[in-house]
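In this section we walk through a basic example: taking a raw amino acid sequence and producing a predicted 3D structure, encoded as discrete structure tokens. The instruction is simple. Fold the sequence below.
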Amino acid sequence: MHPTDEHLLPVFSALGAAADRYRVDTQSLGTFQRALAMTNYVFADA
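The resulting token sequence is shown next.
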């Protein structure tokens, strides 16, 4: 089963550390051999 908790829990830690006003930007790093996709989520001031 995917995603499991360890994939999602760090997002809540980042949201808790964010300021009251924030925005979320994404950076796609593409795919590797059509099997592994990587995306970064960036929390910045609004």
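Looking at the output, two observations stand out. Residues 5-45 form one domain. The chain has one domain: 5-45. In the next section we compare this with other chains.
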